[in-house]
Design a protein that fits this description.
Length: 500
């Protein structure tokens, strides 16, 4: 019976480790682009959930294996090499499990974040060394000897208990959240949305910190976000502050070259710009709080068989459970002068359009009645573009936004700019959005290496694409440092708790 138990533990552990490694490498490929070279070997879709359940399975199996070994002590005849490899495996699996638990709870100190990734690589080495031992000893009979269990000796009760423990722990970890206390203020208090936290109400509000990681261009990919929240019963105000050594307002500038105008870029062709882009900040809201951005993150080059592949091989956001997730997208160039955040949502997959280069899956903008910004080129090409409009003579061409009424249609005869001239690629058609897309007022200011961002929205709107702000609404935040999609992220949702 002891051999049957060991065989079950061994087999289930192999399965759990395999799925954990493959899903973990897929998640790591979001900020380790060299892993995209093996993208065809990695799973696609809701990989975060697969990684969580395989990690929990390995944790439960390892705990029972420790109990099993302690209660069934035997004298082994292993070689010195085999013992060393076995203890190496114990250390690596323990390190991987401990760092994974702390990472899932957002408790892993930032300097130790690489530990989880490198322990996974060490686990690959352990599997190679460990399997080599059995291959030498047992040859072609290794799989039969190690994994075969006679049905009459199969420990069904133990297997059932282990699966039950995995399910219970998975449910508990899925529902684990942070809590953000929303302080109450009087409806008579005037809160100015100007990017300053100089109102006394902000000084008295509860301060909450969340560590976000894996963003491009941040120091070690890390940005700690400080959050405060206030509510007057009708609206909720948020204050976000995070470190960013550089204020990035250089958004895909147009550069005059000998052959004409060109978009200055480093990844934009693949929709993964990481150099010439504005700073941004995103807030996602949901009525549920599940892992993997509430189940909206689908990783891989083509996670949906019925939809086009993406250009960067990193994945899509979509909601396939019939629920809407609200998404506020503040942009330092395109929306900050409007004193708005772009009110977006994550919903079901949309139908691809013919000749559309970038398919966005379920990531969509709320409707608008008027107002917009557009890119200042007629047709995009990696090699050369033609601007839509050129600045009037009294317009400062160094400004990151070109106003529509401060410019005129492009004519080659008026294009007398010298080689090396830079123009804005962001063209304002009006001062701001109107309609659902303008539900979130926002203003950000950068000073001494920090962004401070104020946002406000009504607790309830009339839009079908908005989530009501109330107790138990869950929130996720992400910072972007001159990157298009390579944002920071955290694991646990932040649940709002309003003062009575």
């Amino acid at each position: 019976m002891r051999r049957s138990i060991f065989a079950v533990l061994h087999t289930l552990s192999i399965v759990a480790i395999s799925f954990s490694l493959l899903s973990g490498l897929r998640i790591a490929s979001l900020d380790k682009s060299y892993l995209l070279s093996i993208t065809t070997l990695l799973p696609e879709g809701q990989v975060h959930s697969l990684h969580l359940i395989s990690g929990i399975s390995l944790l439960v199996l390892s705990c029972y294996y420790g109990y099993f070994k302690l209660s069934h002590r035997t004298v082994t005849t292993q070689t010195r090499y085999h013992k060393l490899v076995t203890w190496f495996g114990y250390v690596i699996i323990l390190t991987s499990l401990l760092s994974g638990v702390l990472l899932r709870l957002d408790w892993l100190p930032q300097p130790l974040l690489p530990l989880h990734y490198f322990s996974a690589l060490a686990l690959l080495l352990y599997l190679l060394l460990h399997s080599w031992v059995y291959a030498l000893q047992l040859g072609r009979n290794a799989f039969k000897k190690i994994l075969f269990i006679p049905l009459k000796r199969f420990p069904l009760r133990l297997t059932g208990v282990l699966i039950l423990c995995i399910c219970v722990l998975y449910y508990y970890v899925q529902s684990s959240t942070h809590t953000l206390s929303v302080s109450a203020i009087s409806a008579d208090v005037l809160m100015e949305i100007d990017g300053y936290d100089d109102e006394p109400q902000w000084q008295d509000a509860t301060l909450f910190f969340v560590d976000t990681n894996h963003g491009a261009n941040f120091v070690d990919g890390y940005a700690q976000v400080a959050i405060k929240a206030l509510s007057n019963g009708q609206e909720t105000f948020f204050l976000f502050r995070w470190a960013d050594p550089t204020q990035s307002l250089n958004h895909l500038p147009l550069v005059k070259t000998e052959s004409g105008w060109k978009v200055q870029e480093n990844g934009f062709y693949h929709f993964d710009e990481q150099s010439y882009y504005e700073d941004k900040f995103a807030v996602m809201l949901s009525n549920s709080c599940s892992f993997g951005a509430d189940g909206t993150s689908y990783l891989g080059k083509q996670p949906f068989n019925s939809s086009p592949a993406n250009w960067h091989s990193k994945g899509y956001h979509a909601s396939l459970d019939g629920k809407i997730r609200d998404l506020w997208h503040w942009k330092a160039v395109r929306t900050n002068d409007m004193v708005l955040a772009d009110d977006n949502f994550i919903g079901p997959l949309v139908k691809p359009l013919n000749a559309e280069r970038r398919y966005k899956a379920g990531y969509q903008t709320d409707g608008k009645e008027s107002g917009s910004y557009v890119m200042n080129w007629q047709w995009y090409s990696k090699n050369q573009i033609t601007p839509k409009r050129l600045p009037n003579q009294n317009i400062d061409i160094s400004h990151p936004v070109l106003p529509w009424f401060g410019s005129h249609p492009y004519q080659k005869a008026h294009d007398t700019y010298p080689i090396g001239t830079q123009l804005s690629s962001v063209l304002y058609r009006s001062n701001r959005f109107e309609g659902d897309r303008a539900d979130v007022r926002a203003k950000g200011r950068w000073h001494d290496g920090y962004w401070t961002l104020e946002l406000v929205r009504k607790n309830k709107t009339d839009s079908a694409h908005d989530i009501a702000l109330s107790n138990h609404t869950c929130m996720w935040v992400s910072a972007f440092d001159r990157s298009q999609i390579a944002h920071t992220r955290h694991q646990r949702a932040i649940k709002l708790r309003y003062a009575l």
